[in-house]
Amino acid sequence: MTTKKACPICEAGIQEIDYKNTELLKNYTTKFNKIVPRYYSGTCLKHQKELANAIKQARYMALMPYVLDLR
Fold it and tell me: Which GO biological process categories is it annotated with (predicted)?
């Protein structure tokens, strides 16, 4: 039997995921700025959806890059 991992955002007691909090959002993106899937990040479904929407909104507002330029 395996035990379920607890959501790190639920454990931290974060009430709202804001698109302006880029330090939190960077923890849930890869080095190529792709959104990390749920099974890697360990977040619950509710917070994964909020994270994805916040990351997309931060990209749209130019607070985070869409892709990493490795040139």
Answer: translation
